[in-house]
Recover the amino acids of this structure.
């Protein structure tokens, strides 16, 4: 296996470990359910202009930017294609889900009054009706459910941050040596977040959701009726958009900010690059064309026009960056509808048209978290060809990638034609901008169940 592949696949495996793995000594549940989560890595990262996403409008921040709200909604709305590489399709999560809840045809007898009453009590634990600034009714989380969701987000952030720090320590001899001293402090933050989540209603909300999961199977029509109401309630009109958008959130709220001192830092050196890789990373490497080289030119996130291997004289490569796993929240989506029985989608298609449960369908996977890196630094002792590539990437306008990192090109998901490029540093280059290099996705079960 070439050095190009070893570098990229080692990076993939490290990120997969953080998204789906766990420190065996922690004893707390992963932030992501590994049985229902897929990790997709970009063949080249999506570089974002942080200013496009800062200070988004929300009901609690009415002075915020509506354009930022629209940009976030667009960023997380792509339906990924099949395979291990992040490859957005022309379909949108919001559109497929809207069609699902609006075209549904339920075939079940009406539920009994007792079942309806039991479901109403469970729903009352989670949602209540509110009014927006214009007096329009919408469903909002109850005080308990809102506090539980904030505590869950805090736990998810604490957990993924800890796992990132732990994985970095296990891969660095110096950090591993002092981990018995630094580890307990890092662990205490996760345990405290776990306790805070419990005291904020974790068990009560879980019990209500479990009860609903059972009761919903005999009230499919009512679930879809409320899903339609929720969908309509969260439509948001933005001056810059021709159609209403569905507002989504990315956690933590300052993910696009300029300050990243709390983000875990990773350093990879040539000695850390392994020749033994997971089946997932090997599959991704083949899909991303890494056998053709680590450098990529032209094209963009989904494909490159050409690739080149590292110069045979290049050695002592080191890659350092800060990163976070940033969960996505869609308050307008009721994901329980995907698992309900006794319905079809009429003209939209037959059984499994949304998802066949095995990776096929209009929306087999839904993005649930973004893996974002920033302040990427790549250094080494470079051969002449690689030195020329670095000079080109740091001084010209050519679209260039180095493994999963975008080095220069145009900002993704931007209404402008603004460009970015790496900065030349001693023995290498630095990419300060934030970029999405991976996406954790929730696998959608068989949907709909009926032909």
């Amino acid at each position: 296996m070439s050095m190009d592949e070893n570098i990229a696949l080692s990076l993939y495996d490290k990120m997969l470990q953080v998204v789906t793995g766990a420190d065996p000594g922690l004893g707390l549940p992963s932030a992501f359910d590994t049985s229902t989560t897929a990790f997709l890595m970009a063949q080249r990262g999506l570089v974002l202009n942080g200013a496009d996403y800062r200070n988004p409008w929300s009901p609690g921040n009415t002075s915020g930017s509506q354009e930022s709200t629209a940009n976030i909604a667009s960023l997380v709305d792509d339906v990924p294609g099949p395979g291990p590489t992040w490859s957005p399709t022309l379909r949108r999560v919001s559109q497929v889900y809207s069609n699902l809840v609006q075209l549904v045809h339920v075939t079940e007898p009406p539920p009994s009054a007792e079942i309806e009453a039991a479901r109403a009590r469970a729903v009352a634990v989670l949602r209540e009706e509110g009014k927006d600034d214009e007096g329009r009714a919408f469903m909002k989380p109850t005080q308990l459910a809102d506090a539980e969701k904030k505590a869950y987000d805090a736990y998810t952030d604490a957990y993924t941050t800890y796992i990132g720090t732990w994985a970095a320590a296990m891969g660095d001899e110096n950090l591993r040596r002092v981990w018995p001293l630094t580890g307990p402090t890092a662990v205490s933050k996760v345990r405290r977040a776990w306790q805070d989540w419990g005291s904020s209603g974790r068990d009560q909300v879980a019990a209500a959701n479990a009860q609903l999961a059972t009761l919903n199977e005999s009230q499919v029509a009512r679930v879809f009726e409320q899903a339609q109401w929720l969908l309509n309630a969260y439509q948001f009109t933005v001056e810059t958009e021709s159609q209403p958008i569905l507002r989504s959130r990315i956690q933590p709220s300052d993910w696009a900010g300029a300050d990243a001192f709390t983000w875990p830092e990773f350093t990879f050196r040539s000695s850390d690059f392994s020749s033994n890789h997971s089946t997932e990373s090997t599959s991704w490497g083949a899909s991303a064309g890494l056998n053709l080289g680590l450098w990529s030119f032209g094209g963009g996130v989904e494909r490159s026009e050409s690739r080149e291997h590292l110069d045979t004289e290049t050695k002592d490569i080191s890659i350092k960056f800060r990163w976070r796993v940033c969960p996505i929240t869609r308050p307008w989506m009721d994901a329980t509808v995907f698992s309900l029985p006794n319905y079809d989608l009429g003209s939209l298609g037959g059984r499994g048209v949304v998802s066949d449960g095995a990776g096929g369908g209009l929306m087999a996977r839904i993005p649930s978290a973004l893996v974002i890196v920033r302040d990427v630094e790549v250094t080494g002792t470079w051969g002449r060809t690689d030195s020329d590539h670095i000079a080109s990437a740091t001084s010209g306008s050519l679209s260039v990638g180095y493994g999963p990192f975008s080095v220069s090109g145009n900002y993704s998901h931007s209404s402008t034609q603004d460009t970015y490029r790496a900065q030349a540093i001693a023995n290498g280059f630095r990419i300060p901008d934030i970029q999405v290099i991976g996406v954790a996705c929730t696998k959608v079960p068989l949907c709909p169940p009926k032909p």
Remarks:
- The mean pLDDT is 86.
- Residues 143-170 form the longest helix (28 residues).
